[in-house]
Specification:
With about 170 residues, the protein is mostly helical. Helices cover about 60% and strands about 5% of the residues.
Length: about 170
């Protein structure tokens, strides 16, 4: 099977539901940024403990569903959509990692370990994805739980990154 289809050679791509859309549309930008985030989390997994790797792997699976949800206008074709339970799972992750972190009384300079540096980059990609999805929601009907999930995910990535710091360098204002 060829990986190239040539159907995108004129600047359009197919959505999950089969409809065609311009490659520079905000919808494509939204799920493309989720794909970028998912790939970057894959890189992060090489620098963390086995437990954290399992947490990140489960997040990656969620991101595939989120990408599919953003890549279709017909939600009836989806196997799974983001739910409140998915968000509660992220809140559990945030609480667990923050409860195990030290020095929570100030902002920190991120990246005192390779793991935390990569996780902070993932967090900033997640924040960009959130901004794009919010923009998309102003012109298209999307599941409002997508925004909530991505907002929580950036918090979870922060908590995991903070927990992965070798030392804390406080930033005072």
């Amino acid at each position: 099977m060829n990986i190239y289809t040539k159907t995108g050679d004129k600047g359009q791509t197919s959505l999950y539901d089969g409809s065609r859309i311009d490659k520079d549309s905000i919808r494509v930008d939204s799920y493309g940024t989720i794909d970028e985030l998912n790939s970057y989390i894959g890189l992060c997994m090489h620098y963390v403990s086995e437990y954290t790797r399992n947490v990140l792997f489960n997040i990656q699976k969620d991101l595939f569903y989120i990408g599919a949800e953003l890549a279709t206008k017909d939600s009836d074709k989806l196997k799974k959509i983001v739910s409140e339970e998915d968000i509660k799972n992220l809140e559990y992750i945030i609480d667990k990692f923050m409860s195990e972190s030290k020095g929570l009384d100030s902002f920190i300079i991120p990246g005192t370990s390779l793991a935390s540096a990569h996780l902070h980059v993932a967090r900033t990609i997640c924040r960009r994805a959130e901004r794009i999805i919010v923009s998309l929601s102003k012109t298209e009907d999307i599941n409002p739980l997508l925004i909530k999930y991505i907002n929580r995910l950036s918090d979870a990535l922060y908590a995991i990154a903070r927990n992965s710091e070798d030392k804390l360098i406080p930033m005072e204002f």
